[in-house]
Design a protein that fits this description.
Elements (H helix, E strand, L loop, with lengths): L14 E6 L1 E2 L9 E9 L2 E9 L6 E8 L15 E10 L6 E8 H4 L2 E8 L13 E4 L4
């Protein structure tokens, strides 16, 4: 079921859920668009984010975050703690497109409230901004 913005109607359970990434304030010179597919099987969660409209040949990092306290209604604006075990790093191609894929134990991201994509400073995935694209998410 596709979802966008900060509305989460169907939590991720066994199977697959899709979410639309929304542009964030740190995306000043780019127009990121894309989606996130989250598949749960047993105790593992596989995440694939596909984005376009990015700066070509640039590293990006994505990971799940817990709900923070900066906002009580918008997970993407809540400034929650990054769940670093879910970190996925990749470089955009010459057309500004990237696919980020990774897997993590379900138990490590059960408290996730949102999935955030950042521009990265390096190939290690050090975030260079507060996030360029985000979606609310709920794990079960």
């Amino acid at each position: 079921m596709a979802q966008s913005g900060t509305s989460v109607n169907t939590p991720v359970m066994q199977g697959t859920a899709s979410y639309v990434l929304g542009r964030q304030p740190a995306a000043t010179n780019i127009t990121p668009m894309g989606d996130v597919s989250v598949s749960m099987s047993g105790d593992m969660v596989m995440t694939t984010a596909k984005l376009s409209g990015l700066t070509p040949n640039t590293y990006y990092v994505a990971h799940y975050h817990t709900m923070g306290t900066a906002s009580t209604t918008d997970p993407c604006a809540s400034n929650g703690m990054a769940l670093l075990s879910s970190k996925i790093v990749g470089m955009s191609d010459k057309d500004g497109m990237v696919t980020l894929s990774g897997s993590v134990l379900k138990s490590e991201i059960l408290q996730a409230a949102y999935f955030n994509v950042h521009t990265a400073k390096d190939d290690m995935g050090t975030p260079a901004d507060a996030g360029i694209a985000c979606t609310a998410i709920k794990m079960m």
